[in-house]
Design goal:
This is DUF1827 family protein. It comes from Ligilactobacillus acidipiscis DSM 15836. By secondary structure, this protein is of the alpha+beta class. Helix content is 24%, strand content 38%. The protein has a six-stranded antiparallel β-sheet, covered by helices on one side.
C-alpha cells in the first residue's frame, strides 16, 4: 500500500531558501516508499517532481501522486519522464 509521508520539516532550510529565490509560494516534500516527491505551487501552476536514486518510478506511484496531490486537475497534467525522475506540470484553474 502506498502512502505519502510529509517530511517537509526535514528540508526547512532548503525550502525557505527556494521560496525566497523563486516564484513558488508553496513547497511540500513527501516520501513515497524510497521515492521523494516535491510539490511546488506557483501563482498559476503546480509542479511535482518524483525521484528515486535506486530504481525507475512506477506507473502505480505516478497515478497515486496524481490522485492525491492534483485530484480533479490531474487530467490536465503534463508528464515528462526520465529513468529515475518524473516531472509533472499542471495549470491551476
Amino acid at each position: 500500500m502506498l502512502n505519502l509521508v510529509d517530511v517537509t520539516n526535514s528540508y526547512a532550510h532548503e525550502i525557505s531558501k527556494e521560496l525566497r529565490n523563486s516564484p513558488a509560494h508553496f513547497i511540500k516534500v513527501y516520501t513515497l516508499g524510497n521515492s521523494i516527491v516535491v510539490h511546488k505551487k506557483k501563482e498559476s501552476s503546480n509542479e511535482i517532481v518524483i525521484s528515486n536514486k535506486l530504481r525507475s518510478i512506477t506507473e502505480k506511484e505516478i497515478n497515486f501522486v496524481l490522485d492525491n496531490l492534483l485530484g480533479e486537475s490531474k487530467a490536465d497534467a503534463t508528464i515528462s519522464r526520465a529513468d529515475k525522475v518524473i516531472e509533472i506540470q499542471s495549470d491551476l484553474s
